[in-house]
Every structure is written in structure tokens, then in C-alpha cells.
Amino acid sequence: MAIPTHQSTAAPQVNITLGTAGHIDHGKTALVKCLTGCDTDRLKEEKERGMSIELGFAPCTIAGSEVGIVDVPGHENFIKTMVAGAGGMDGVILVVAADDGVMPQTREHLEILTLLGVRHGLVALTKVDRVDALHRDAKRAELQEFLRGTFLEGAPILPLSNLTGEGFNEFLERLWDLVERIEPKRVDGVFRLPLDRAFSSQGFGTIVAGIPVSGSARIGDEITLLPQGLSGRIKRIEVYGRTSEVVLAGQCAAVNVGHWDRREIGRGDVIASPGYFSAEEWFVCRLRLLDREKLAIKSGASVKFHTGTSEVPAMVYPLDLPVLTAAGEYLVQIRAATPVVAGPGDHFILRWPSPVQTIGGGTIIEAVDRRLKRNRPEVLEDLHLRAQAVGDDRRFVEYCIRRAERFTAAEAELGVRTKIPRARLQQILSELADAGAVLPLNPGLYMHRDTAVQSGEQMLGSIAEFHRQSPESPGMPWDDLRQSLQWDKEVLTAVAGRLASEKRIHQTGGRLALPDHRPKLGDEDAATVEAVESLFLAQLFNPPNLEELTEKTRLTTTALGKAVRILREHGRLIAVEDILFHRDAVARAREILVDYLTKEGRLESVQFKYLLNTTRKFAIPLLDYFDRLGVTRRSGHTRFLKAPPGQGRGR
């Protein structure tokens, strides 16, 4: 299962990977061999041609700690391989030969490293044994000027010879200084490893190798191979060529899964913790264009899209402007010809397919499911906010909650979108809730504070409009409010509860009203309501039906319906099954029932109609109603008092 490595040491491992960069034949591979004892040119063709073709990996012990080194090809034909290796670098050793100086791939490699977000490094001025002191000083000055304005400005430029060993002591000291300045990658994210290669080893089966960009994994962990969607468990791990129980982000590693077919796995594939990632076609990105002559990126321009270890043909769709013609930063959409696996904040590189050259790169904001329309200002505004949030876990979680569809975001959905594992996500959500930025609703469901404020104003507006249209009503029924706003129940309840706690609404009898609302009946409505109510009061236990009401009041169906609605809304009429009783009738019937049961202990159902001087049609529904309220308990056709007088659950 071995990856070629120098194993003469068992130093403590630090999850930092350095890398080489620079023009072909400037001594990158020789420098790595001097540092590590490893010849990273493992292919026969590389040894025969004397040039690196594939990525090489080696462990390097510096001041008692071990870091990884990835050696990249320097030839222009292998830039895609260089980009695949550079994506895992935390710091770079830019290698420049003293006899050649700055060359085309020196420039392009530095541009790529900048676009990929590398911010630490130093310069090895190699082959100083081939030049005199004057020439060496001239090349150092040339390099200082070349690096001006780059992330390597002011970085040490260290003369050395891979043949004689000159300058190596100082180089090692400065290399350790570099490592100490680099913060190791965080390991509390979702495990993801873009694959450099896959191979088989007798007795082990399939092995995949590369540098994880996030999280950690242990032997026995379940992982998914993407885009294939194959599941597996880690059987064995090697880090820097030695067996390990765990692999961390930023470590050169080989992972043994065994049963996968290596012939179906290639560079650009990804292994990751299950459930978080999928291969996507559309990505919204923040693109930084390099200063190139006659550069023009029109909508649908064809490019090569590099991210992780993958390279696929793609098309670019500018969002800020119709055509991009100058160096600068822009929002774009990229559509990959073949779906790729990438997450928010991942770096990418764009290259022209012909003539082949690097034109820019940047960070992926997020995968999307379709092409966005650039002529919609609200879309661009949202994308700019999203771009600012990506890269900071807490800001991105808060953004996702603020912009959630239907006002709320579930914890599980947030985890998948933000690519943050559960424990870390719960910590962030707790912090946001403590700060008042988000509101926990049901377990695992969250609403943003701004959403609560905005939706609260919308709810108040709906209630106010209801008062305007129905001034006679004591308040807006819940069902009407839900239908008006079309919100989920959790949202409706949370917003109403927040407004009630702020005393901006009050809730009574299943209705919501503004604090200053007082029901108002017009003269005509008041007379109609009084006429209808008087009939119910005159016939407490034999209430009139619709036909009788119409005959006695001579009201239209509309006017009569409105009067009944008002009486029900104000609680003066109570629906008992499909019969309306005046509240005085219900109260009096209860009083009669409780008094009788208190004295007699039991009541046969048929007796109740005689107590009320009514018919079975009205008496039995009232008895059933009192059963439901908890006033009485039924056994067959007999009722018993269930609770002492006054201790039922109310009307």
C-alpha cells in the first residue's frame, strides 16, 4: 500500500502540506529529494525524460516535526497537473534557477497559487553553483522586483545548490519559520478528499490517494465515492507513508477501501462523508480575472474549469456585466460539462482551451440548480451577500437562515447546504440563538430575527386589513390568517407568539386582534343582530333554525348570515354539533345539569329533555357537549358528574 516516501523518521506529524512551484528544470524535484530523501519522480517515463509528469508526494521532517511536500510538474503541458497539486498546498517553495531566472511557468505558477489562495511561501534560488556571485545578485534583484505586489513580496530568497549543499542550513531554518507561520487546516469540517490517483495493492485491494481539504476520517468510517455514488468503509490509512488510525485535512494520505474497482476511479473524483456532497453542473462563483491582452469573456464562453483535482470543460456566464474585458473581480456562473464535486469557498482556476493559458480563478460561492438571470437586481444583491458570507461558518449559517424559503431553515438542511457537521453546526446555532440573531422554533427549526420582524409587520398588516373590512368582528380567526398569509403552522405560531409577547396583538377565543381594536357595529347591523339574538333568547332550549329565522326576521340570506356570524364571533351564539344555542342557554343547561347530578348522583339521558322542557333533538347534543367539556362522564345511557361544580375545562 506504500506511496513512495522517506521513512527514516517517525517525527510528530503536522497537518500542513508544502508544495513546490516553478519552471521546468529549475530543480524542484532535486530539492525535494535533498529535503526528504525521496525521489518523487516515480514513473519510468519521468526518469527517462528527466522531468516530472505527475504529482509527487513526500514527508519532510523539519525541526522535529513532519509535514507533507507535493512536487508539481513545471512543464507548460502539465499545468492541469500542477493545479491539481497546488489545490492542497498551505505554503509554497517557489523554485527559480539562478542561471535562468524568472521564466514563463514561474509567472504562471505564481498566478495560479495566488488565485488558489496560497498566502505563505519562500523562494529557493537554485543552481547557484552554476553562476558567479555577480550573476547571483542580479537574479536575486530580478526576483525581488518580480515578486513586488504578490503574496511573496518580502519573502526570503534563499540561494542554494542541490549538488553541493550550499545554503541548505539557512534554507531549512527559514523553511521551519515558514511552517510555524502557517495555521494547520481545521479538522472539524466534513471530511472530503479530492483524489489524485487510485491504484491496487496485493492483499489490500483499491487504494485512493490525495490531500483532504477538510475534516478528518478514521479507520472504519463510512465514506462515499463521488460522482459514482459508491459507498464504502475505510479499512486502512497511511499518512506520509506510515500506518495511521486517522487522517486529517492537510495531510498527504492513502486510504484503502478495498472493494471499489480502481479502473472506475480517477483524478478529480472525491471521497467524502456521506450525505453532504453531490456532483453538480452549475456553480455561482467569484472570479478574479488576470491582466491579459485582448481578453473578452462573453456569455457562454468555453473554458477549462479546475477545482480540487478535477479539470473539466465548462462555460462561463458573466453576471455583473454582459462581457468581461478587464482584470478585476466579478460574479459569474459556471456550467461544468461534466458534474464535479465542490463546496462553498473552494478555489478554482479558469484557463482558455486555445491558446491554452490561465485567465483567472477565484472561489466558488455555491452550487445552484439552474442558470440565474443577470438582469434581476435582487438576484445580484443576494449573490453579493452570499459571496461575503461564504468562508465564515457562522456568517454563512446565518445567511442561509435569513434567506431560507418559507421563512425557516431546518438543522438537517443547513448542514447539507453549508457542509458543516452536526456538532459544529449545533454550536453555531446555539451561539446565534444566544446572540438573538436567530429564533429556535420547533426542535431543529430556526427563523432569522430579521425574518421574524418583517413577517411580524406583514401579520399586523393582515390583521389591520381584517379589522378594516370587518370592524364588527372581535378579531381575525386563525384559519383566515393562515389562508391569508399562506405560512407554515410553525411560522404562524412563532410570529404571533412574538407579537403577543410584545403586546402588539392579543389572542382570545381563537382570534387575533390589535390592542386598540374595539368591535363596532353600524346601526343597521346592530338592529339586525339584536333581532336575531332576541329569537335565540326567547327560545333558549328550542333554538330557531335558519328557516325559522328567515321567516320571523324577514332578513335576506346575506344579512341573516352576517348577523349570525357576528353573534358567533362575539361568543353570544355557541355551536353544539350543528345546532346554535345562545350562550345563556348553554350556561343555564349546565347549571341545571350540575345541580341535578350533585343531588341525585346520576342522570339517565332521556331525563335531560324533561329538565330543559325541550326535545331529545336538543337535549342529547347538549349532554354530549358537556361530556366533551369534562363536566360529565357517560356510561351507557347514564351521566355522572365528572368534576366538582366549577372545575370543568370551561366552555
Structure, described:
- The protein has 651 residues and is an alpha+beta fold.
- The chain folds into five domains: 13-181, Rossmann fold; 192-272, Beta Barrel (Elongation Factor Tu (Ef-tu), domain 3); 280-383, Beta Barrel (Elongation Factor Tu (Ef-tu), domain 3), CATH 2.40.30.10; 451-513, Arc Repressor Mutant, subunit A (Orthogonal Bundle); 523-641, Orthogonal Bundle (Arc Repressor Mutant, subunit A).
- Helices cover 34% and strands 28% of the residues.
- The protein has 19 helices and 35 strands.
- The strands form nine sheets. The chain has an eight-stranded antiparallel sheet, with no helix packed on it. Strands 2-3-1-4-5-6 form a six-stranded mixed sheet, with helices on both faces.
- Strand 4 (91-97), helix 4 (104-115) and strand 5 (121-126) form a beta-alpha-beta unit.
- Helix 8 packs across helix 10.
- The longest helix has 21 residues, at 449-469.
- The chain is elongated, with a radius of gyration of 38 Å.
- The termini are far apart.
